[in-house]
Specification:
CATH architecture: 3-Layer(aba) Sandwich
Bound molecules: NADP nicotinamide-adenine-dinucleotide phosphate
CATH class: Alpha Beta
Pathway: Cofactor biosynthesis; riboflavin biosynthesis
CATH topology: Dihydrofolate Reductase, subunit A
InterPro entries: DHFR-like_dom_sf, RibDG_C, Riboflavin_Biosynth_HTPR
Strand order of the largest sheet: 6-5-4-3-7-1-8-11-10
Protein name: Bacterial bifunctional deaminase-reductase C-terminal domain-containing protein
Pfam family, one: RibD_C
Keywords: NADP, Oxidoreductase
Radius of gyration: 16 Å
Length: 189
């Protein structure tokens, strides 16, 4: 068994989830409130190591923080290791990181990680990024809900959400000055 998976990401209208040269707020206040409500209702929030490095998020309202860091490049200094809630790191390596439990798996495929989390009692997860991690879920079509908030602005020099051409089947709604796609299905062209 694997947990119930909700993917959420914010991107510019041309598909970038982050500007190369620094932080750029892609979501708006309405969208942030929507995401906070999801965080409150799931057992854990999952992020890749690069997102922790670049954004240094606290992940307010998360019940558990789940970080994928195969090479264990992170250190004690990130906000996710503030000790206020439990943080788990899935890795191939081991080292002491304050306030984090390192889970070493030979098989670091998303399916294997999710099975382990389910067995640990984490039955629902919000996947917040980044692109590398989200694409592993897309490749295997592992999601129960998938939301993309689209900011009407352009980021020219940024990290793309998608690595290849994709065809999305979605319901769309306005969210303030942005758009919210509720993805029902996603396929290669
Ligand atoms: N707009 C948004 O909604 C949003 C949300 C979150 C993040 N972001 C942005 O996304 C960017 C980062 O995205 P990214 O694609 O570069 O990186 P990422 O997905 O955040 O992290 C990728 C790293 O996570 C580790 N990893 C991935 N899968 C793993 C697995 N199955 N097992 C163990 N470790 C695994 C790997 O670390 P190793 O190198 O150790 O192998 C990999 O290099 C940042 O710029 C951030 O600002 C945007």
């Amino acid at each position: 068994m694997i947990p119930y998976i909700i993917i959420n990401v914010a991107m510019s209208i041309n598909g970038k989830i982050s500007a190369i040269n620094g932080r750029y707020r892609i979501s708006n206040d309405i969208d942030i409130n929507r995401v906070m409500e999801i965080r409150k209702n799931v057992d854990g929030v999952l992020l890749g190591a690069n997102s922790v490095k670049v954004d240094n998020p606290v992940l307010n309202y998360a019940k558990n923080r789940i970080i994928l860091d195969e090479k264990l490049r992170l250190n004690d200094n990130y906000n996710v290791f503030d000790g206020k809630i439990k943080s788990y790191i899935f890795s191939r390596n081991n080292k002491k990181i304050k306030n984090a439990e390192i889970i070493i798996l030979d098989d670091l495929s998303i399916t294997s990680i999710l099975k382990k989390l389910y067995d640990m009692g984490i039955k629902s997860i919000l996947v917040e990024g980044g692109s590398n991690v989200i694409n592993q879920f897309i490749d295997k079509k592992i999601f129960d809900e998938f939301y993309i908030f689209i900011n009407p602005g352009l980021i020219l020099d940024g990290i793309p959400l998608f690595k290849e051409e994709m065809k999305l089947n979605y319901k769309i709604s306005m969210e303030g000055d942005g758009l919210l796609l509720n993805i029902k299905d996603i396929n290669n062209f």
